[in-house]
Amino acid sequence: MLSHMAVSSRLADDKTLLARVDDIARGPLAKIVVDIDQKGHYPLEIMRLLGESGALGAHLQTHGGDFGLALRAMATVSRECGATGFLGSGPINLLN
User: Is the full-model pTM beyond 0.90?
Assistant: First the structure.
């Protein structure tokens, strides 16, 4: 069982990760949504940023195995660009 301090720390880490993802979604991703949707641009630069933020690995056991956090991160991305959110959910779906 996790201590109160461990739970508080985990919640703070989760909020930090989601804030980073929101910044990516509302910033660099929002600027290229039209290219993604209309020109078929594959957003490698955005996927790299999401990976660096921890969003693409939150579901892995080595990063806490938190599927809920991983899904919340991809939902945040999907609010700005559904296609990119779908790309980010690929690693999560592979484990099911």
Answer: no
